[in-house]
Amino acid sequence: MSDPDLHWALAASGDPARRIHAVTPEELPALLARLDPAAAGFLGEAGFTAEAGKLALLPGRTGLAAAVLGLGSAASSPFTYGALPFGLPENTTWQLDEAADAEAALLGWMLGAYRFTRHKAPGRRPARLIPPGDAPAVQRAQVLAEAMLRARELINLPAADLGPAELSDATRALAERCGAHFEEFAGEPLAHGFPAVAAVGAGSYRAPRVAVIRWEGAADGPLVALCGKGVCFDTGGLDLKTPDGMKRMKKDMGGAAIMLGLAEALMRLGAPIRLLVAIGAVENAVSSTAMRPLDVLRTRAGLTVEVGNTDAEGRLVLADLLAFAAEQKPSLLLDAATLTGAARVALGPDLPALFTNDEAFAVALSAAGDACHDPLWRLPLHEGYASWLDSSVADLNNVGSRPMAGSIVAALFLSRFVPRGIRWAHLDVYAWNDAARPGRPEGGEAMGLRALHAGLMSLLPA
Q1: In the chain, which end has fewer C-beta atoms inside a 10 angstrom radius, N or C?
Q2: In this structure, what are the phi and psi dihedrals at residue 321, rounded to the nearest 5 degrees?
């Protein structure tokens, strides 16, 4: 997988370091009593109240002595710590005091330190943090951060740098790094086994691939299957997008990046499962060989699909992937995709839309997202709209007959490729930060990754 420099913001445990005091408003008086009177007086004169995310630098006799971070009164979020790497002076090294939430702090620090630097040197380096111990929770936070940063890096890569072959290579690299088996389908095997994926990629000179990882973490563990939409660039096909609509379509492989990041976290943290990952790596381009409106496509599941719109290509890719994964009879099946603008109209950029056919799955994923500050929002698989996908010439159309409920209709389309009895969840994500916020720089974002990891782990046998 494309590998950003993951550790430039971390320092060795023996390095000299200044201290960061992390404090709630309730704890502030006790901190002021412990500090040197001059430092306590400085904080008082500056009006520091320990508001969440507020940072104060404390002067010493020879320069900067320490820093104080406000945590606010709510439960600690990693993003409270997200501004520290660039809020503290460059070329300085820091360690947290014992009051800080070590897991949230390390996660927030690493997420906040990331910048996409493949084509532009960074203006400055972040400050460095000594990792706060080696407790299992801290180790988990570092692995999750590294998985998210690799996912961000993939999403941020321009389409000229990341085509179907390169996305498949990134999947291969992940498998090799985690001791998993890798398999790639291309050419005739792809056309035969994944005909809808092949049809979506037929218009591009960069041939489509399906990349598969198999990992035996626990020989007798449940099988978890992950499917990711990896459309490396989406022109909309012959139903061409507008210039504005096409501008960020390098991120249309965000679902694949999130699934690869989730797979990395599950494997590196030793989840007691067997894992199957299927990535549909493809480019939806315009040419004389591109699929056309009203073409009828064959799918791996045997269903035929009328192409009502060539810009609804992601669901065609996932249709074949879901059918392939379902053949393995997984205990849990999960997919992620930057699938519909309708989900963003309904929920905005920050909330991935969650659809699932299983109540316990829904509760586990939603509760995990709330607990780890990575929220998901469930939308209904309303069967009353299923007839909107009817076609007079095929088993179903790839778009609805009415200009409403687009994300629900897309999820209903996908559900046709998930056999009854398989517990399935679908995540419709934006995978992008439109503007920079603490811990969330502008650009690609692995939305839902931590929620999915925590939710899946909560469903596994102890």
Answers
A1: C
A2: -65, -45
**Residues 232, 169: contact at Cβ < 8 Å?**
no
Instruction: Answer yes or no: do 147 and 245 share one domain.
Output: yes
pTM: 0.97
pLDDT classification of 4: cutoffs 50, 70, 90:
confident
Cα separation, 416 vs 430, in Å, equals 23
Alpha helical stretches, state H, 349-405: 359-371
Residues forming beta bridges with residue 68, ordered by sequence position: 21, 56
Cα separation of 108 and 236, whole Å? 36
CA triple 337-342-346, angle to 5 deg? 110
Q: Which residues are catalytic?
A: 241, 315
Residue 275 lies in a domain: yes
Mean pLDDT of the chain, nearest integer? 96
Residues 288 and 319 in one domain: yes
Q: Which among 437, 439, 372 has a CA at the least distance from the CA of 82?
A: 439
What's the one-letter identity of residue 82?
Answer: G
Domain match, 113 and 169 both:
no
Give ∠ CA 407-411-416 in degrees, rounded to 5: 150
pLDDT by residue (tens digit) across 407-434? 999 999 999 999 999 999 999 999 999 9
Strands (E), 13-127: 18-23, 55-60, 63-70, 93-96
179 and 275 co-located in one domain: yes
Pairing of strands 181-185, 209-216: antiparallel
Give the list of residues 6+ apart from residue 236 with CB closer than 8 angstroms, or none. Answer: 245, 246, 284, 310, 311
What distance in Å separates the CA atoms of residue 327 and residue 419, rounded to the nearest whole number? 9
Phi, psi (rounded to 5 degrees) for 329: 55, 60
Tokens 């010439």 -> residue: 393
pLDDT digit string, tens, across residues 92-107: 999 998 767 999 999 9
User: Is residue 373 within 8 Å of residue 364, measured between CB atoms?
Assistant: no
DSSP string for 102-156: HHHHHHHHHHHH----SSS--SSPPPEE------HHHHHHHHHHHHHHHHHHHHH
Q: Tell me: the pLDDT tens digits for 32-59?
A: 999 999 999 999 999 999 999 999 999 9
CATH assignment at residue 453: 3.40.630.10
Q: Could you give the CA distance from residue 362 to residue 378 in angstroms, rounded to a whole number? A: 7
